[in-house]
Write a sequence for this structure.
């Protein structure tokens, strides 16, 4: 039996500009992703029975297993579980190539730290880690560019989770250009809240993240934007960030302040007005700046450094009061998908 473990980071969007949707319903995007030290871990094992088995363990902010969320994810049909779809895509390749004899069944164990339906690309990170792990398991020898091409057929955020760091995404947000590489880090926040980070290098970012118990469906947020006729009621032509903006987004926290922007904020707040209070509370708690991550509901608040991040998380939680939110602290930019362990046994 062979076994490979890989991990991939969740992300926040530092910049998310949305253009008028095309005939396929997808919106052209200009977005800048930052991968953060909150990682999904996927272990893939060869098994005798053909097909793909998935077991998912979803974790709460404090690291404990959320049984109800885990059961819900395991009840998804395989075509809706991005990790299963990623394994299927590589299994097809493996069975078509000279590796056919090795392309037997596979079992996936998905350990989730990124909030489900949180706007942080948790499902895409599952797919990215699975692609990398299955590539290794079956010895396919695909390079990052080839995995990205397969990844974008699974979901628009999969390439970002493969590449990591701070990256510009265009097209559907799936054509990547790395702006700043990620830093290796454990990516495994210590249990409890707020989570520990190990960030200190110049230009590292420390984020407090307010996680919501209730997810937001990405298509619903895009639909809401369409119903309003675009961001601010109109569709503007999209432009890639110029050098100055790119420099700010990849620079230290002081440069990032005031540069964060997300066109999905208005529609997400119409669906979830409470998120407006979460954003306000972040600023009142002393955040350098705050932004909705992707389609939400996760809100990311930027701290000056790690110590400030811990204080910010506490102050923010106090302001949020009994609301069903939790706050953790993570660092970025994090490394993209990577192999964690490999083993073979008779
Ligand atoms: O690609 P992915 O499956 O992650 O996208 C989820 C949904 O988000 C899509 O079904 C679509 O409704 C919306 N979306 C979009 N334009 C994009 C990316 C996502 O409309 N560029």
């Amino acid at each position: 039996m062979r076994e490979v473990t890989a991990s991939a980071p969740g992300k926040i969007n530092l910049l998310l500009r949305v253009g008028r949707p095309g005939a396929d319903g997808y919106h052209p995007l200009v977005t800048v992703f930052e991968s953060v030290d909150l990682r999904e871990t996927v272990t893939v094992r060869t098994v005798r029975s053909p097909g793909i088995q998935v077991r998912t363990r979803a974790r709460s902010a404090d690291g404990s297993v959320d049984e109800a969320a885990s059961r819900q994810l395991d009840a998804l049909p395989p075509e809706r579980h991005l990790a299963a779809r990623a394994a299927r895509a590589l299994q097809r390749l493996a069975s078509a190539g000279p590796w056919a004899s090795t392309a037997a069944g596979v079992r996936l164990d998905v350990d989730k730290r990124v909030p489900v339906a949180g706007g942080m690309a948790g499902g895409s990170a599952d797919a990215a880690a699975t692609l990398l792990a299955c590539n290794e398991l079956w010895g396919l020898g695909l390079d990052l560019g080839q995995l990205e091409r397969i990844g974008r057929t699974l979901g628009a955020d999969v390439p970002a989770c493969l590449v990591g760091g701070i990256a510009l995404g265009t097209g559907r947000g799936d054509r990547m250009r790395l702006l700043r590489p990620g830093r290796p880090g454990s990516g495994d926040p210590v249990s409890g809240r707020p989570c520990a980070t190990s960030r200190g290098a110049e230009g590292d970012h420390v984020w407090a993240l307010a996680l919501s118990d209730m997810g937001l469906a990405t298509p619903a947020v895009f639909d809401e934007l369409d119903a309003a006729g675009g961001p601010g009621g109109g569709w503007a032509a999209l432009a890639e960030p110029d050098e100055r903006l790119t420099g700010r987004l990849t620079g230290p926290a002081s440069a990032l302040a005031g540069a964060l922007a997300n066109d999905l904020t208005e529609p997400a707040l119409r669906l979830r007005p409470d998120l407006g209070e979460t954003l306000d509370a972040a600023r009142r708690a002393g955040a350098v700046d705050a932004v909705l991550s992707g389609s939400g509901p996760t809100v990311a608040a930027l701290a000056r450094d790690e110590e400030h991040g811990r204080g910010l998380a506490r102050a923010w939680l106090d302001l949020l009061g009994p609301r069903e939110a939790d706050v953790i602290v993570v660092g970025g930019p994090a490394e993209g998908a990577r192999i964690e362990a490999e083993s073979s046994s008779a």
Summary: The mean pLDDT is 90. The chain is about 30% helix and 30% strand. The chain has one domain: 1-346. Residues 272 and 329 are 23 Å apart (CA to CA).
